[in-house]
Specification:
The protein contains five helices and four strands. It is of the alpha+beta class and 137 residues long. It has a four-stranded mixed sheet with strand order 2-1-3-4, with helices on both faces. Helix 2 crosses helix 5. Pfam families: Thioredoxin (PF00085).
């Protein structure tokens, strides 16, 4: 558990799920959510920038876990108006997953949309090479 806390503490982006075991939509989402979590772990670049959080509605520690996530949000908190609730915390703000397919690929794209995911400067291989200018005779 302390490893999870340490992971989230240093991650600029958190993708979260609040779900209920009894919820049919949550049951349908669970395999896609698990595939998303595995894909984040396998993507080194994304896993350095993005943490994954989940809590089940009946978890006795749900309030404490959400309170900890709420500390990352400036002047707000995570709203759980229904199940499943998918959210992203980035730059002190919370965004909710609205519409779209709830599958691993879509969730990955949503996670990568954060400006924090963008990598370093892309090297232009031709920029350093001298260009030949050809003249017509």
């Amino acid at each position: 558990m302390s490893h999870t806390r340490k992971q989230h503490k240093h991650k600029p982006v958190i993708i979260g799920l609040v779900y209920a075991e009894w919820c049919g939509y949550c049951k349908a989402l669970k395999p896609e959510w698990d595939a998303f979590k595995n894909a984040v772990k396998k993507d080194r670049k994304l896993s350095e920038k993005c943490g994954v959080f989940e809590v089940e509605d009946s978890d006795s520690m749900k309030s404490a876990k959400l309170a900890k996530m709420n500390k990352r949000i400036k002047g707000g908190e995570i709203r759980v108006d229904g199940f499943p609730t998918l959210f992203k915390i980035s730059g002190g703000e919370v965004q909710y997953f609205q519409g779209g397919l709830r599958n691993a690929a879509t969730l990955l794209e949503w996670a990568k949309q954060s400006s924090l995911y963008t990598g370093g400067k892309r090297k232009n291989k031709t920029a350093n090479k001298s260009r030949k200018i050809y003249k017509k005779n």
